[in-house]
Design goal:
By secondary structure, the protein is of the alpha/beta class. It is built from 15 helices and 22 strands. Strand 21 and strand 22 form a beta hairpin.
């Protein structure tokens, strides 16, 4: 029988939950979320009408109450058996549970625990923590014998047991013998970065008889419990969709990509700062919203208020689409969000809101959320594969370093994208102008010409092909031809 752990994210990782009537190990350094996860496990039992027991050697009842209150919970329905170092004496009767652990033999502690289990007859048990038991034993062999005896005691009962280990008393950090004794092992980790909030993650080391999702999964502790974000596996999320084009509403721009990006593809917009990448993305989003399609913009670099002001200046009224619920703009702090949480937000937009177009602005901000570039590429590849299989058009904005001259990107992701739009500055007649070109388009044909590109109060314009360029591949294109193909202000050209 499979039972829920009480945490929806962990249940997804375990593909439903854990087999009942087994002993599991929950290990992790202090502050990694073990107590909160253990309380969620017991609270689930209380919700199902089960008798549950929390055996604590390390924390007092009051400390547990404080942890529960921080999440808006109470401890009603949870039997707590406390063996602490509180300044108390042995009492008479079974109800006395305040003891001095260093003044008793380990065997006496185990006997008290067994007696309490016999009295309560719990369905779910949390034992917190093995580190105290390890200190009491003082001898590794004796400690392991007692853990084995504890496991054998519970094996004859209909109890699902979680043994908590904060690994503070273990010189080897992880006890391989303890891992072999338990039916499953869940490890929580807390990572301190050079800047920003601490990151937490978990992994299932083993779980006999369960095809769990292996690897690390990001998690955060918030008011209300632990949020675990299962690692995204694109192959598990295939959906059916119709491969039609998604036009921008500007005929000349759509002509560059033979009508526009195909559904289920990703479009990379790259170029120096100020060349118009975000504005082009907004044009595609505005057109999709006008068609009634839900869209989402994940903003890392720019403030949402600035984005609204920019769109309004270029005759793109995205605020109306936000008010009508067709467009959702999310501000993300790269110092706070982990890649796993970001992937979970993307999935929520696609699966709950039905988003058909996603904009990530920009990849530099996403890179800041995950300093290890190699891992970032793997994460982004899996995320794009998921979005492609869902029929979502993904617009990736990737700023290049520098304004003129040879340019480079801090993240080489062009090979992952299905289509690439390159924007460049060029010089002609003493003015700084912009050029647009398509580097590749896996979804079909594309125009190979370089065209002038302008943005003004009436929106985006794409001009005639510029055939007389010099130095395009050097990063400093210079126009050497006649003045006729060059665009001027709309009022002058009319």
């Amino acid at each position: 029988m499979i039972i829920s752990t009480g945490n929806s994210g962990l249940d997804l990782v375990l593909r439903g939950g854990v087999p009942a009537h087994r002993v599991y190990l929950l290990e992790g350094a202090p502050g990694s979320g073990k107590t909160t996860l253990a309380l969620e496990f017991l609270r689930k039992g209380v919700a199902l009408g089960e008798r549950v027991l929390y055996i604590t050697l390390s924390e007092t009842r009051e400390e547990l109450r404080v942890v529960a209150a921080s999440h808006g919970w109470n401890l009603e329905g949870i039997d707590i058996f406390e063996l602490s170092s509180a300044d108390s004496v042995f009492g008479e009767g079974r109800e006395q549970s305040i003891l001095h652990p260093w003044e008793m033999e380990l065997s006496e502690t185990i006997k008290l625990i067994r007696d309490e289990v016999e009295r309560v007859q719990p369905i779910r048990v949390v034992f917190d923590s093995l580190s105290e038991m390890r200190l009491l034993a003082q001898d590794p062999l004796r400690y392991r014998r007692q853990v084995l005896a504890l496991k054998q005691f519970f094996s004859g009962r209909e109890s699902t047991v979680i043994l908590v280990d904060d690994m503070t008393g273990n010189a080897n950090s992880r006890d391989a013998h303890l891992h072999s004794l338990c039916h499953g092992v869940i490890t929580l980790e807390r990572l301190t970065l050079d800047f920003g909030a601490a990151r937490r993650r978990m992994q299932v080391q083993k779980l006999r008889g369960v095809d769990f999702i292996a690897g690390f999964h990001d998690l955060v502790i918030r008011k209300g419990g632990v949020d675990i974000f299962p690692r995204l596996i694109a192959a598990d999320h295939h959906g059916d969709y119709f491969e039609d084009v998604t036009p921008s509403g500007i005929a000349e721009l759509d002509g560059l990509l033979a009508g526009g990006p195909l559904r289920g593809t990703s479009l990379l917009l790259t170029g120096p700062a100020g060349s118009g990448k975000t504005t082009v993305a907004l044009q595609y989003v505005h057109a999709a919203c006008e068609r009634g399609e839900p869209c989402t913009i994940f903003e890392f670099d720019e403030r949402v208020a600035t984005l609204f002001a920019r769109a309004k200046a270029f005759n793109l009224d995205i605020s109306a689409h936000v008010e009508q619920g067709r467009l959702n703009i999310q501000q993300n702090d790269p110092a706070e969000i982990s890649p796993g949480e970001f992937a979970a937000r993307v999935r929520r937009e696609v699966e709950q809101r039905g988003a058909r177009m996603i904009v990530i602005d920009s990849l530099n901000g996403y890179l800041a959320a995950m300093p290890q570039e190699q891992h970032l590429l793997l994460q982004m590849h899996e995320l794009l594969s998921y979005l492609n299989q869902q029929g979502v058009v993904t617009l990736l904005i990737n700023p290049q370093n520098g304004l003129v001259g040879t340019m480079s990107s801090s993240l080489n992701i062009s090979y992952v994208a299905d289509a690439v739009i390159l924007l460049r500055f060029f010089e002609a007649q003493g003015r700084i102008r912009k050029a647009i070109s398509i580097i590749k388009n896996r979804g079909g044909s594309h125009e190979d010409a370089i065209r002038e590109f302008r943005i003004d109060a009436d929106g985006i314009r794409v001009g005639e092909p510029l055939t007389a360029f010099k130095g395009v591949l050097t990063g400093t294109p210079e126009y050497m031809g006649a003045t006729k193909p060059l665009m001027e202000d709309r009022a002058l050209s009319q």
